[in-house]
Amino acid sequence: MLKKTFEGSISYMQILDENGNVDENLFPKDLDNNTIIKMYTYMNFARALDAKALSLQRQGRLATYAPLVGEEATQIGSALALSSKDFFVPNFRQHGVFLVRGIPLDKFFVFWKGYEDGSDIFKELNSLAVAVPVSTQMPHSVGLAFAQKYLNTGASVVSYIGDGGTSEGDFYESINFAGVFKVPLVAIIENNQWAISVPRGKQSAAQTLAQKAIAAGIEGLQVDGNDVFAVYKATKDALSKVQTSGPVLIECITYRMSMHTTSDDPTKYRSEDEVNLWKAKDPIARLRAYMLKKNIWSDSKDLDMKNEQAALIDEAVKKAEEFKPNPDDMFKTVYSFMPDVLQEEYDNAVAAGFWLNNSGKN
Amino acid sequence: MTNMVGAINNALDLILEENDKAIILGEDVGKDGGVFRATDGLFAKYGEKRVIDTPLAESAIIGSSIGMSLGGLFPIPEIQFAGFMLLSFSQIVNHVARYRTRTRSSMPLPMIIRTPVSGGVGALEHHSDNPEAFYSHIGGLIVLEPSNPYDAKGLLIKASHMKDPIVFLEPTKLYRLFKQEIPDERYEVPISKANIVKEGDKLTIVTYGTMVEIVKNAVEARNVDAEIIDLRTINPIDENTIISSVKKTGRAMVVHEASLSFGVGAEIAARIAEKAIFDLDAPVLRVASPSLPYPFPGYEKYYIPNENKVGEAIDKILSF
Predict the structure, then answer these.
(1) Nearest to B239 among A123, A133, A340 (CB)
(2) What is the pLDDT of residues A216-253, one digit of tens each?
(3) Which of A92, A161, B120, B148 is most buried when burial is the number of CB atoms within 10 A of its CB?
(4) In chain B, positions 191-230, which contact chain A (CB-CB < 8 Å)?
């Protein structure tokens, strides 16, 4: 006997095309002009913040930084779909999500200057800590969603991972766990086509990354990740059902317009032509075209917005540069108590001024 | 009278009873009660919501425990064998150990990771590892390893009242080796505090886990006036108890089942060298398994330190 035991498919959603035209049938009904303006403002803000961070890093005023330019629609669209009680679990590129969740910008800069002190804000933002080891944040999001279900908070969790991250074991283990425990999790794949120098095609033979959901027994879909309306709708729809029907995996197709991090030179491995192809799909330009057609935006508003955002960023940079590191906290924040053996190491370090001043004796 | 696995089972029961946010998760911990029966009866008592059988995925067991802890629960993941725990090593090193400090205390990570360790029971070789040194080396983890039922229960209950991530190592061989009279109610054994098992003036022997019984027997057989210190907490180590004893006895040796090189013995010998070298009448000795990967069960008896090996070292250190 031979019979078909499973059938599955993945659909792709686009609402706002590259020329700023929308598919009226799919256009989210709850999306009013104010929210659209908010989307546009945040996307611009994220890009401006990104440019500033990049420039500061190049001046040696920030440590390594991972730019988000090109991925604004995926981040802002999904973040705006969250309710205030929902949680999010970032990787290391979700600056746009943090912006929407109201991160104090000076904390953002302190963090990327290389100080843990910038991360004492995550809890207040209903975020977990920025995770650099790719995909390791995924099981955290499952456990966090499990806790929401256990405690009946009604909150859901949105997690973020890149295309490369979906090749990791932690990703597969996590969506499998999420399916088994039916937790309220929306897992977003920010597929920006490149994992440092390795293209999407070399990560997996799977035609889509969304179809990995099928193996975990959960819902999966693809959206145009440069279309803020589609990302917003997909996330919102998913959030409306994860509480009852379990996790959803959303693959957002976008593009990393810049380098992986400031330690990377993408000209070594990808062509200018490819980058130009994606420039034409820019998420901000298409939203702007739509807003101009709808007469809800103008050039002068652009100018005001940019000035206002630049001022906020500059003020935050100034505040962050006044930040004074406190090496005591390296010792004092590890355990809930100070172990005797660590106290001794700490006392020695403090007595010697952490050996930073050359006494002149050799 | 209770054996160690019974004491652990009792402690877990009391923890779940006391804290309704406490949950147990792992492979076969539910109806089966765990492969060593450490969670026996808890599924029936607390239900599948709190005693959770997971898919076979150690990294996700620890990783999701992190999220549970940050979400306000108190997860007690069981990893079936220490060798399998290495599949979650990334989660433990990259996240469990450092979440608190990298969020500057704003996001502490209370949890207890339990796993059986050590050999001597004829199990397959990946079931018999002694991983205490590498979990202690990271910093940020409290590493406990009891040697008897009383300490196992008291340490586990103490761990459940802490706001820190705990790695709780349970020597398989001791699960059913002997019984002790222990209190029925909750009690705590302090962490970072070694236990002086036997006082003595001529020699300090620092040990823990499976080797405590071996050392006791070797000392008794020789009728040596040795002070035996059971660490109980590997990290953060109780240096004071060790140094005070060595200053009194002038001789020190460390006995552990884990392999010799780069182990806990090296750490203790170094601390003695730093703090008490001029009090020593003999070099510090280490008795441990050879610096080899853990062997198949047929070779265990050639590998694990026994009373003869400990006894020979005692003779050697006393003859200086």
Answers:
(1) A340
(2) 999 999 999 999 999 999 999 999 999 999 999 999 99
(3) A161
(4) 192
Give the tens place of pLDDT for each residue, A30-58. Answer: 899 999 999 999 999 999 999 999 999 99
Distance from CA of B159 to the nearest CA of A (A): 12
A342 touches chain B (CB under 8 A): yes
Is the pTM for the entire model greater than 0.80? yes
Q: Are the beta carbons of A136 and B237 separated by less than 8 Å?
A: no
CATH class given for the domain over A12-321 = alpha beta
- Residue spans per domain, chain A: 12-321, 327-362
Domain ranges of chain B: 4-174, 195-318
Per-window interface: A 314-333 vs B, CB < 8 A: 329-330, 332-333
Q: How far is B231 from chain A (nearest CA, A)?
A: 14
Q: What is the mean pLDDT of residues B90-103?
A: 97
Give me the CATH code for the B195-318 domain, please: 3.40.50.920
How far is it, in rounded angstroms, from Cα A145 to Cα A65? 29
What residues are paired with B233 via a beta bridge?
A: B144
Contacts with A250 (C-beta within 8 Å, 6 or more apart), sequence order:
A78, A186, A187, A188, A189, A210, A220, A221, A222, A223, A231, A234, A235, A238
- Nearest Cα of chain A lies from the Cα of B122 at a distance, in angstroms, of 31
Distance, in Å, from the CA atom of B320 to the CA atom of B284, rounded to the nearest integer, reads: 11
ipTM (interface predicted TM): 0.96
Domain B4-174 -> CATH class: alpha beta
Answer yes or no: same fold for B4-174 and B195-318. Answer: yes
Q: Which B-chain residues 94-133 have CB contacts (< 8 A) with chain A?
A: 94-95, 99-108
